[in-house]
UniProtKB/TrEMBL annotation, chain A:
Entry-linked InterPro entries: P-loop_NTPase, Small_GTP-bd, Small_GTPase
Segment forming the signal sequence: none
Gene behind this protein: Rab50
Keywords: Nucleotide-binding
Sequence intervals crossing the membrane: none
Name of the protein this chain belongs to: Rab50, RAB family GTPase
UniProtKB/TrEMBL annotation, chain B:
Protein name: VPS9 domain-containing protein
Species: Ectocarpus siliculosus
PANTHER family named among the record's database cross-references: GTPASE-ACTIVATING PROTEIN AND VPS9 DOMAIN-CONTAINING PROTEIN 1, RAB GDP/GTP EXCHANGE FACTOR
GO biological process: vesicle-mediated transport
Pfam families cross-referenced by the UniProt entry: VPS9
Biased composition (Low complexity): 108-124
Amino acid sequence: MAEPGAPKTSVEFKVVVLGDKGVGKTCLVLRFIEGYFAPKQQSTIGAFFLTKQITATDGTICKMQIWDTAGQERFRAMAPLYYRNAAVAVVCFDIMDEESFQKMKDWVEELRTNVPEGKLVLAIACTKTDMESKRVVSRARAEHFATEVGGIICETSAKENWGVNELFARVCDRAMETRGPELRGQASGGAAGTGGRKSKFGLSPAAHAAGFGGDTGAESGGGCCG
Amino acid sequence: MDASPEAILHRVRERDAQMCVLLQRTELLNRVHRGAISELPPSPEGMGGRDSLKARLAVIYGCQDQAETVLNEAVPLLQPPPPPSSPVASTPDAYTKAIRSLLSTPKANTAATARSTRAPSNSSGHPRVQSGGPPSVRRAERGDGGRNSSSAVTYRVFLERLTRSESEGFVEAIRLFLFSILGNGGAVNPAAGRPRASSNSDIRRETEEVEVYGSSFLSQRCAEFFLAMQNAMGVHTSWAELGYDSLVACREHLERFVMSKIHPLAFGSKLDGAVDASISARLQSLQFLTPHDLNVSVYAREETVLTLAQEELRKMGRGRCPGDIVSRVVRCCDTLFALIDQGRRFKQGVGRGGGGGGGKGRGEGDSNVSSWRPERDPAGTADDFLPVLIYVVLRARVPRLHSMCEYVQAFHSPVALMSRPGYCFVALRSAVEFLMTLNGAAVGMSEQDFRRRALDAAIGVDASS
């Protein structure tokens, strides 16, 4: 049954951050997160896995589970484990480094080969754009590539805090546009990978609100794990 | 009877789906019952059946339309279900009968039963809670990071809620689900574990007719069952109030509860001795690798701490439910993060110019300095973390590592596998993957040298063991 008076919808999805070593993946993510986590939490969490909640334009609350990955070449083969079940991939390259641009293309190619069409929102982050004077990868080239592969592209600088929030906001909106209903279904129970038969338990909100007090007489609950 | 896997899966799913509908019916009736008994004036005379029910519902919901809707939903549910199309379920289903008889149990009777069984249920329930539950649960919650550390229900609260009378539908569903997996000889234990059933012999007798599927399609069935239960809790009068985070937690508690019962069977279905053995042999042959070979950051080469992390990782094998296993991995990873964090700070204190000879991981750390530094230095990035984890996995040589990973992958909640514990778990899997595919070039030695050393390490063990 539909949920007419549902207060708000929230979804939870996975964002994987890829890119060559040294392009500033971690900095990008930390800049995005900073101010959200209390410092004491961050000390144990590390910079490899972070969560941030933002509201998409359509009002959906998106809880992003951001997975940073190791950039070293020798861990390349393990990447599929990381981007598996991700809804969004942010692929980074350093505008001062031609090689990282090529690597970024490889990543995009790999994602397009391994992830079924329409399952993944692709975003390309040009990092370190504050170093405009040392730029070697022109904006036009990057944009051309992004259009070709149908990805979001964003010029960012973690140092100056340019474009970082914009990048993630656009990513969220795109994810809602393309996979919104699917993700919403998942958030309520996480049916990823299962056949996805959803039982219909929707009862009217008024019914929930009726809130009859429970009887106190306890049923036996069965033993718990022994 | 069609015995192809697809047909069986279809039947199993149909059965589970039916049970979910019944669950919904229980809740609906609970609502009607309670309203009728506790809050309503006696029904007006001359009104029977449907009209009377509708009048009562109208009082509950304060609106005729609403009552009509609920009633329309409820009435078909109150009828016996239409004969299912699947041939196997042509006789009235035991699930159906059991829950129907549950529904028709008079209120007073239920209450009396509850009273009479209260003491035994407490005495049998509590010690178990203490032995198996809270300590590991608390850890699991902490390991869950930002998700639901503050307000989510604990395992103990979850069990307590299950014992309330309004949760009887859930309890019954869980019991039948377990029954359909373990069968009569399983740990479902109608007499001991469920004293209430002994007073309701109808239910018990009928559940014995539940078809037993054992481990076929177990992981799909579990996933669907947990999801259905979470959805059902989400609209249940007394569970829905817990809120989203707690419901997610409840799903995990339910998973813990169910998996701890069916662990031998579920784990057995994922046990792959051959792969486990090949991993063990491989790890054995790689024991010659040093932290330096694996590019472990210099500040993370702290043997005492690494040994602690290994110990944590080895405890994986003690976990029975996926959540427990993963929480061990998380603890191992936490130890490593703390180590990396400490090391970095110390190094910063001493000064940055420690020479360029460190691992590759440190290389990136340094290059970040030139662009922008987060206000707090990260407690270790993915680049630092993976090499040290690989080293720990290599040293810990956890038995049955592969089977355990497969078990977690198959039965753990997908939501949990997407969040922080999931990250640690994936890191573990990728560490194993790395070690299995490692060659000489990756550790900076010639292929010949690498093979020779691997052979030596392998033989060394054969001789000693």
